[in-house]
Amino acid sequence: MLDERARKAAHNNALWCHAVCSAHDRPGELLDGIWVNRREVPLFYPNAVTFSEPRDAPSHLERIHALVEAGIPGSWAVKDSFCSLELQPLGFHVLFEAAWFYRSTVPPAHGRATATQPRWDRIREPSELARWETAWRGEASSEPQAPPARIFPPALLVDQTIAVLAAYRDRQIVAGAIVNRTGDVAGLSNVFVRESDPDPDRCWAGCVTAAMDVFPGLPLVGYQAEPRLARMRELGFEILRPLRVWMTRPRG
Fold first, then answer.
1. Fewest C-beta atoms under 10 Å: which of 86, 139, 158, 199?
2. Is the pLDDT score of 98 beyond 60?
């Protein structure tokens, strides 16, 4: 039987994908146990996310086959949330495997601000969101090159169920994450910590604490792949069901 916590994590992730696409004026559709989008989606985002029982795989396959027939340009992905789909016959290959995680509402013991812990704030201004995305990409904001297409547009800041979090040292963004609330869980995603930070462990713990502070009383859910999955274990997260992301090969 499917762990309800894993189902909530997958559903939360599907709604997050829907929110990002909607912010780009390309919303998808929530159908029976699956979210789909028949148009091009932002970089790193899938065109389908399953979130219901593995026994629903036959109906999920029908929806995905319809996406294939829709002729979505370029390569695109399906998040097979419970490893219940066989998509090779439809021209997919496995891009990566990961696992869902869950953490109760007790914050980490060493997640509060100290002399070595950066200050965590919620991003509220579009200009600061642009800085945050640059840091998330791991790029130097002073690089003289054309900026890549934005993945996180300012429209996300209007949605009060979404919080973009940043950690600052001397006004520089050194870590960050996004939290989205759905029902009685909050999804933790897009976590990054600058590799050169003098205390990355406290940055990770501070991220979890900041996420819990912005949506108090809600457990955190999400997914990660190794080696980051090991860090989630260290921070007190339970590792739930595995998931798989499939990718099509480019047309032509």
1. 158
2. yes
